[in-house]
């Protein structure tokens, strides 16, 4: 039943938007924000699951296994829906490989090895640079309109997140650099994905999510094989098997499907800024599951972030006007 989570979640979200009576935003904008909020909850578990997973299994093998689980599950969904042939269109193969290479292969190598060399706090902080990447990429390559208001609210969200996460000295090491470049890979993937979905309506968010995990997972498997990092014997451990399937299905398959539904509807820069509050959810999750009580800086930071979210959600996604000579 888990392989149907992505498509069922999308159906539920679209139904929810029809029940919202607020007229501030258009239906498309509201849908995009709802999909982004769901992504926040899914992404919030990533640092916790990744840190736990790399502690009990090789980071490369863990990343490979999770990606392949996600790719296979999503491929089964595309088979059922009958649109699997799009995955192998020759004219898009190069772009599909780019999405898989940057979205899964390189980004997972950077992130999963990065978290082994730095603290979870530093990892979460450094990932918050993603809105900055997104602002430049959206403006330069997607012709997205970036207002002064959007920049200010994005900075407010980043400030709030740093307030929540920062607990002491900030010392940069190689792990920090690996994590720092991870969001850049994500943004390159989002850029190519958004352009493909706009170019060909048959390329849905589900197709993009399948391409990213399946192609990226296969490339990771090749790297895994070349380096000889094979821990298939560890898969008889139910604890390891559970965490791989959880991360593969919830953390990759479902999260990516919902995320591409979001950026299909609203500006990439806006969606990225909104989704970057997911570390706050990680802290809330730790509060209930690990019984860690939030301290004053976390409470203040959460308030700042909510202020930024409220302001950013009211800004309509627009394109820049083209100058006609």
Tell me what you see in this structure:
The protein is mostly helical and 325 residues long. Helices cover 75% and strands 0% of the residues. The protein contains 14 helices and no strands. It has helices at 5-19, 27-44, 46-53, 59-81, 93-117, 120-127, 130-141, 148-165, 174-199, 205-227, 238-265, 268-275, 278-290, 296-313. α2 runs antiparallel to α11 and α7 (130-141) packs parallel to α9 (174-199).
* End-to-end Cα distance: 55 Å
Main β sheet profile: none
Please provide the ordered H/E string of secondary-structure elements. HHHHHHHHHHHHHH
The whole-angstrom Rg is 19 Å
The coarse silhouette is globular
Query: Helical residue percent?
Result: over 70%
Question: How many beta-strand runs?
Answer: 0
Question: How many alpha or pi helices?
Answer: 14
Structural class: mainly alpha
Q: Which spans have pLDDT < 50 for at least 5 consecutive residues? A: 1-6, 8-24
What would the average pLDDT be, to the nearest integer? Answer: 80
Strand content: under 5%
């Amino acid at each position: 039943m888990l392989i149907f989570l992505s498509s069922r979640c999308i159906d539920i979200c679209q139904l929810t938007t029809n029940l919202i009576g607020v007229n501030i935003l258009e239906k498309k904008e509201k849908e995009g924000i709802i999909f982004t909020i769901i992504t926040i909850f899914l992404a919030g578990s990533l640092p916790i699951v990744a840190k736990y997973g790399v502690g009990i299994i090789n980071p490369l093998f863990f990343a490979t296994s999770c990606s392949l689980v996600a790719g296979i599950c999503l491929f089964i969904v595309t088979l059922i829906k009958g649109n699997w042939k799009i995955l192998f269109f020759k004219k898009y193969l190069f772009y599909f490989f780019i999405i898989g290479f940057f979205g899964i292969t390189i980004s997972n190598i950077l992130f999963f090895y990065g978290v082994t060399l730095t603290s979870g706090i530093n990892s979460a902080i450094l990932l918050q640079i993603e809105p900055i990447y997104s602002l430049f990429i959206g403006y330069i390559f997607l012709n997205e309109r970036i207002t002064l208001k959007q920049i200010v609210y994005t900075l407010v969200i980043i400030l709030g997140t740093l307030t929540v996460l920062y607990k002491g000295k900030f010392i940069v090491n190689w792990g920090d650099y690996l994590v720092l470049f991870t969001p850049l890979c994500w943004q390159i993937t989002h850029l190519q994905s958004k352009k493909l979905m706009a170019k060909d309506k048959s390329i849905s968010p589900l197709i993009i999510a399948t391409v990213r995990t399946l192609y990226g997972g296969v490339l990771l498997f090749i790297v895994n094989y070349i380096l000889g990092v094979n821990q298939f014997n560890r898969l008889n451990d139910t604890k390891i098997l559970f965490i791989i399937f959880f991360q593969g299905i919830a953390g990759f398959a479902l999260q990516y499907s919902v995320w591409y539904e979001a950026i299909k509807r609203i500006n990439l820069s806006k969606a990225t800024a909104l989704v970057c509050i997911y570390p706050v959810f990680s802290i809330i999750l730790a509060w209930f599951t690990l019984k860690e009580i939030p301290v004053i800086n976390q409470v203040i930071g959460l308030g700042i972030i909510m202020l930024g979210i409220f302001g950013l959600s009211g800004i309509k996604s627009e394109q820049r006007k083209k100058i006609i000579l």
